[in-house]
Amino acid sequence: MANHQDDEDLELALKMSMQYNPPEAKRSKPIEETGSGSGESPEAKTRRLQREIMAAAAEKRMLSFPKSPRALASVADSCKGIGSGGGLELSPQESNQLFTMVFGNEVSKSILAQWTNQGIRFSPHPETTIGLVQHEGGPCGVLAALQAFVLKYLLYFPDDIGKDSPSLGVKTSKNPYVASDSFSSIPEEAKTRALVRSMCEILFMCGNNNRAVVASFLYSEDLNTNQKDEVMAAGLPIESASDLQKILRFETFTTQSSALSKIAGAITAFQSRVGALLFLISALLSRGLDTVQNDRDDPNLPLVTAPFGHASQEIVNLLLCGEAVPNVFDGRMDFGGGMFLKGISKNVEVGFLTLLESLNFCKVGQNLKSPKWPIWVVGSESHYTVLFALDPAVQEENELELRESQIRRAFDARDQSGGGGFISVEAFHQVVQETNIRLPNEKMNEICAMGFIVWSELWQVILELDRNLGGIKDSSGMMGKKVFDVYHFNGIAKSDINGGGQAMAVEGGTVPVQRPRLTKLNVSVPPKWTPEEYMTCATSSSSDKDSEVNQPKPAQHAPLVDCIRTRWSRATCSWAGDPPSIV
């Protein structure tokens, strides 16, 4: 009877450990520091008990996998790549370079646990079924970037992923098209195809569109099918470069069709607990280890940052633009004497916004801020989420916005302040000539009087001047005004307290179910007038009942709104239920 009960407990634990359970909330401390004190809340206690059961199940499963160096070597001699047979092996030097590049010379067990405990799987909950579930905060940068590409295919290329053998290709035109918001109706096959195609596109982008490298881990042929599944479910023992070298294999593909077939055949490996790490390794190998190091400003720092194991900006940029550069501004910033910082060199498919820009810590360039498709990875101090719109028209610019973008690109190209928003007088005259700015002499002298030009002051002067004087003042007062909806997805489990979510029973009461969050936001962007004009209009239009634009919903605030305002300045947002979370 006792043995039967143990089998049932183990079976339950296995099911809970297989990522279909609601994922635990993001940790704010390393695993070793997380405890179960006497003041533990029922919600925290529930998550802790789930983790303990999962850990116990994983430990039992891992007994079937050899851990000693000699045993690992024997496994490597008789092993087979997941998804297909064989593959090339990294040399010990290459394995050491790869492991050190990712984790550094000293890495804690908590960080390794984070990065070997995150698969690439869709949420099982109907309301978030298009989203990838995140168990740990560390690999969120990998999942968020991949999530952005998955959304591109699900929302804007449904015909491609609906076919059995779609042709890989990116549409360059933005035809009037509003994607469907029936997220729960998307079949599993379509989501899997979108995932496979997204992975293939990213890997080829990292390989300069010439190649894609797909990595795989090995398992022993002596294990039966169930044991193989359990080993992959539990994760592989990767604690050093030596461990990585013994179990890692890779294949290089020069055609997209062959890479698609390989990734589709190995999708269970990417869904396993080592899936996020496996995809990151594939991207690094596709780019080339030496090339990745050349991309970086400081190649001595690990790509996974201590002490919490977060993905660096270099990882996110690699997956968004194919280059592991550490900065988010456009182009590169030269300081003279052969010293420069590297930014984003080209326009991208999906973009990036960050809370740090709203805090004036950095400046996101137009390449990331205005991607081809209205999908953005959103960065906070410690987490990455995704913002997206269903209608590409949200990025369409009117005459005023086009002119602002043109002048701002020229201005930013000469901004050597690290995103501070000012340039020299000499650089300003270059901007004037390049963008055909025509200002009266007295205005030119006024702008240049300080010896440097600040963007906000320059743009204010241009806005305030009538067209016949060289400015672009809008006499109608309607330019730049728009209302639209966006969606925000956070793959880390959050409690939906006010959103009508289900609750689970625990000792001492009930707590809301932890699950990923998808929030719909209504965004209202006011006209780009001077502050005085804006306040005057806001008062006079309060009684206007005819225009939806003049009647935005009551404004609400959350850190995500600050991120949105870096893309649409002075935007106001509203939503139903709990505030969207970017942590």
TrEMBL record:
Domain of life according to the entry: Eukaryota
Pfam families: MINDY-3_4_CD (PF13898)
Domain Deubiquitinating enzyme MINDY-3/4 conserved: from-to ranges: 99-457
GO molecular function, one term: K48-linked deubiquitinase activity
Residue spans of biased composition, Acidic residues class: 1-11
Chain residue ranges for the region called Disordered: 1-48
GO BP term (any one): protein K48-linked deubiquitination
Family designation: Belongs to the MINDY deubiquitinase family. FAM188 subfamily.
Name the UniProt record assigns to this protein: Deubiquitinating enzyme MINDY-3/4 conserved domain-containing protein
